[in-house]
């Protein structure tokens, strides 16, 4: 059953988000204005070293007032591929330059309300370049053993959906491959 769209109008826009009302017709024939949040795409990097540790950042998210561990991530800029954005974000946020990135998993975290796309990549090497150039992102940067990730998720030390999707895929890779 497919919904049909008959138009869209923007209600609010800024460099990070657009709120639109979409004129939709549901399969039963009813028409209504449906609120849609349009977001820029997100690039995420799971950088794993040869000791089976993943590069993570301890950070505060003011919106939910929570502290938690996250993978490096950020918005894809105009003219940038998601892989280029992921590499840039790792370097800016952690001071580590990731080795070759390969797609790990793609997700649409809340596709009933937003068109957000999360592109998660994996790198199996990284080179320390220096301190992070983006100083507003995290309090700590650490290599966390993959063997601790499940427990950290269970204890809500990792709550970001983009991080969870990437880390759970890493854990699946570790158990099946």
Which helices and strands, and how do they pair?
Elements: E1 4-13, E2 17-25, E3 31-39, E4 42-47, E5 53-61, E6 66-70, E7 73-75, H1 82-94, E8 96-98, E9 101-107, E10 118-123, E11 126-128, E12 140-145, H2 146-154, H3 161-176
Parallel strand pairs: 4-10
Antiparallel strand pairs: 1-2, 2-3, 4-7, 5-6, 5-12, 8-11, 9-10
Helix pairs in contact: 2-3
Please explain how this structure is put together:
It is a single chain. With 177 residues, this protein is an alpha+beta fold. It folds into two domains: 4-39, no CATH class; 42-108 and 118-176, Nucleoside Triphosphate Pyrophosphohydrolase (Alpha-Beta Complex). The chain is 21% helix and 43% strand. It has a four-stranded mixed β-sheet with strand order 7-4-10-9. The longest helix is centred in the C-terminal third of the chain and has 16 residues, at 161-176. The chain is elongated and about 55 Å long. The termini are far apart. The model has no long low-confidence stretch (mean pLDDT 94).
């Amino acid at each position: 059953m497919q919904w049909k769209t008959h138009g869209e109008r923007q209600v609010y826009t800024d460099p990070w988000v657009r709120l639109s009302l979409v004129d939709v017709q549901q399969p039963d024939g009813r028409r209504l204005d449906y609120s849609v949040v349009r977001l820029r795409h997100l690039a995420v990097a799971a950088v794993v070293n040869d000791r089976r540790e993943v590069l993570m950042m301890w950070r505060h998210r003011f919106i939910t007032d929570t502290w938690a561990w996250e993978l490096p991530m950020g918005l894809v800029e105009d003219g940038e591929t998601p892989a280029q954005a992921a590499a840039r974000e790792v370097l800016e946020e952690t001071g580590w330059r990731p080795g070759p990135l390969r797609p790990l998993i793609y997700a649409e975290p809340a596709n009933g309300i937003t068109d957000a796309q999360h592109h998660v990549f994996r790198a199996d090497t990284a080179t320390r370049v220096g301190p992070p150039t983006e100083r507003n992102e995290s309090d700590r940067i650490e290599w966390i053993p993959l063997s601790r990730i499940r427990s950290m998720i269970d204890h809500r030390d990792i709550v970001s959906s983009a991080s969870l999707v990437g880390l759970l895929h890493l854990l699946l890779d570790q158990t099946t491959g």
